[in-house]
Amino acid sequence: MAQRILMAAEVLMAREGVQNLSTHKIAKEAKLSVGTIYVHFKDKDDLLTQLVLFLFQRFYQDSMRHAAPGLPLFEQYRKMWLGKWHYLQNNPTIVMNMHQYEALPKFHDVVKFCTSAEDMPWNQFLDRGRQTGEIANLPNNMIYALSFGVIRDLAYIQIIEGIRYSEAMIEEMVERTWLAIRR
After folding, report:
1. Any domain includes 47
2. Residues with Cβ within 8 Å of residue 3, at least 6 apart in sequence
């Protein structure tokens, strides 16, 4: 039931914005009573905090599917890059809500944790790349901005401009962003 409420909050946020969210609207979107929300969440802030954790958990589970530490470094990168690209293609609500997510409680704490957590596939990939001398010796968040940050921007542009990038263009972006983080 909590997942249903969180998914309703996500959809409603995309449609009406975080500033217009209320427990009444979320309950209506989830086709539940308002009281049901308070069975699962202490208050609206708790619900929004749980939404952040729910979103990161989904993203983490997806990124784990694309981790391939046995492959050569570029192939690992390509697999993770394309995995994130396809994840955002299949979840356009996330792309459109990203700026609103950044305003949610605990969002920045979770991001900081993810950029430093040793068990995150991205961080493990960067550690291996630095050990072999293939990845630039920059902070994880800077390397992310040069590589995976581009994915979000491309997905957003594609949605707002109503265009589709070809597979060849996406492959070119994989290679260009790889070059940006190489040592």
Report:
1. no
2. 54
